[in-house]
Design goal:
- With 165 residues, this protein is α+β, with helices and mostly antiparallel strands.
- The chain folds into two domains: 99 residues, 50s Ribosomal Protein L17, Chain: A (Alpha-Beta Complex); 49 residues.
- The protein contains seven helices and three strands.
- Helix 1 packs across helix 4 and helix 3 packs across helix 4.
- The longest helix is centred in the C-terminal third of the chain and has 35 residues.
């Protein structure tokens, strides 16, 4: 189970197995911080899996290098249907992109509505609103291609009517 946790970064198991696995895995992760031949051989004697040892020393130790402890997290998921055993998901702490927020998130669309009332009162006072002044050239630049496209479509429609006659 320890090598599966290291390779997959997350496993589903019972709570009691997860608590015992935590006692077994966390000292190995602590040993992986010091990348020496002796520590690699010590960890290999526990895991007996070359791929897991390589992953532990390359990926896992690099991410948890400055963490003082607490490398695993146990999240309870409910009871198993067959025997009502308490189930959980055990994961390595620094590898959960959802909780860390490093995964791709949708950026909120930032639009600013400027009402005509604000513009008219600013013009009457003789002052201009700086953000409104910045957005005006952008609005003109966006409106120009739309006007050209509409004019072209209208022209095409009128030529199509003439050809049909």
């Amino acid at each position: 189970m320890a090598s599966s946790l290291i390779l997959h970064k997350r496993i589903n198991t019972t709570v009691s197995k997860a608590k015992e696995l935590r006692k077994y895995v966390e000292p190995l992760i602590t040993k992986a911080k010091d990348d020496t031949t002796h520590s690699r051989r010590t960890v290999f004697s526990y895991l007996q899996n070359k791929e897991a040892v390589g992953t532990l020393f390359r990926e896992v130790a690099a991410k948890i290098g400055d963490r003082p402890g607490g490398y695993t997290r146990i999240l309870k998921t409910g009871n198993r249907l067959g025997d009502k055993a308490e189930m959980c998901m055990m994961e390595l702490v620094d590898f959960n992109e959802i909780l860390l927020g490093t995964g791709e998130t949708k950026k909120a669309k930032t639009t600013r509505r400027s009402g005509s009332r604000k513009k008219s009162t600013a013009a009457a006072e003789g002052t201009t609103d700086a953000p409104a002044a910045e957005s005006a050239p952008e609005a003109k630049a966006e409106a120009a291609p739309k006007k050209k496209a509409a004019a072209k479509k209208k022209k095409d429609d009128s030529e199509g009517d003439k050809k049909e006659d």
